[in-house]
Structure formats: C-alpha cells, structure tokens
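> run fold Glycosyl transferase
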Amino acid sequence: MGTPPTSVLLPTVRWTDACDDVASQLGPDDELLIVCDNDADPVAARADDLPEGVRLVIAGDPEGCSGKANAIAVGMGAARHDRIVWTDDDFVHPPDWLDSLHADYERHGPVSEVPFFVGRDPLSTLTEPLYAIGGTLGTYQDNKAWGGAVMFERDDIGETAFLAALCQTVSDDGLLSEHLDLTTLRRARLVPVGGSIRESAERHVRFSQIVYRHEPRGMGVILGLAALFTVMGALSPVLVFVLSTLLSVAVYAFFGVRRWTALLGYPAMMLQLPLFLYGLVRRTFVWGGRRYRWRSKYDVEVVE
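> ok
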C-alpha cells in the first residue's frame, strides 16, 4: 500500500537548498507549500518558476502571533491533503527524509525528529552543549514536536481549536506538542544557528520564554537545577568539570554527533543560570526580522 498524498509546509522568505531537497522527494500526488510573508520576499520572485508539485502561499503579516505561527496557520488552511509535514529551510534534508517520515508514521503514528543546534558564533558555539542537553535530549525524552520535521494527520489533532490558538501565540511546535500525542525519534538534524552574538542572544531569549510560557513549572525546575549546578561548580570545579563534560560527550554520542564542542559542557552549564535569567527578564525579542512582546501564552504583540 502506498503512502497517502501529503502536504509539506515550508515557511521561508527565500529559496534555499532545503526547498530543492524537499521538492525532489515529492510523490506524484504530494505538494510542497512554500509559505512566505508577502510579495516583497525574495522567494516570491520564483512564483512562476517553481518545480512540479510546489506552490507559493502568501501568508501576510502576522497580527497577534509570530510570523512562523501565522505562516503555519495559513499553510494549514491552504494544504489540500490530510497528511501534513512541517519543515524548515535551514538544515539538510537527505534524499530519504520524506520516505523515512512516512515509514515512521506507519509504525508509530505522529512522529517528529529532533534538532541539534550547531553554533556559528562564539555564544552559540559555547552554548551548544546546553542546547544538546536541554533542547535535543529534552525534546526526545519528553516526546515533544519539532517544527523542522514533524508528520501528522489532521485527525490526529483538534485542528480548529489548534489553529485558533496558533494565531494567538509564538511557538508553533510548542503549541503542537500540547495538542498532539507523538513519538519523537532519535534522529537528529544539524541546524546551524547564530552568526552573531546578538542574534544568538535573541534566540536564547525566545527559547527561554517558550519554555516558560508552555511549561512554567519546568522552567522553575530548570532554574533551580541551574542554581545548584552553579554553586557546585564554584565549590568543586574539577569534579563538576569532569561530570558535565562526560554528560555532554554522552549526549552528543547518543545522537550520533561528533563535534569538539562536546568538551564545552562545563562552561556551557555554568552560563545557563545567567542566560536563562536574561531570557526571562527581557521584555521583547527579535525573531525573523520582527520584534515581539510576549506578555502571556496567548497575548503576543508584534512591536515592529
């Protein structure tokens, strides 16, 4: 029995290698929706020169939600099929990527891969182990969705309620994790992040606030453990250095990632408390060229 026709949603403002990668994997009845903000986005210039099975969707500017959430909501409305895939434009999609998701869905139902963030500037490089432990491993252990590679069907979620909530919040995958029971696969995709210290700081603010808005108790636990680790690291630096490095190396190995940054476990963990506090006290953050003020889970202001 063949796989059902599938709609792949890819929000982006420019055509990247990921667009070509996914387009080449479409079946004869599949579609790839390239979702951008408006006609001024570079990708819109390709509207009349798209590969077979690819459509351009103009989402418009967001009001009361993030640009990503708005793009996904509009894309879901425009998608023709019941089986849905969300993905991003910033990582490599190998030739078997879509087929693998289909095979995994048949075994498990809704599925998601996990991101492994690879730093491109001093701050994002230094915090790589922090995101590997809290982001990659945490997402895997808790069966959370990652918007870069998730497959589900419309009947798997309460679509009407989900889309209504999506248009009032920031995090697409944070919200999806609350509406969808899924299996998170131990298959990590390397996602380059950062490029400048300021950009990496803004990303950390967004990540911190996503955790706080969706799991406030979890953020409390994180802050408590971070404070404990900071004290222990100051009192017994050699012991904590060894333990944190071993933990970081083990997490990298668990996901099949071989990078020297696994050795940065100690400084990354010592930085987590001030970084999380910074992320929580910031009133606004920048994502995708827009500045947001996120007052509560369903109260988002697009500042500029």
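The radius of gyration is 19 Å.
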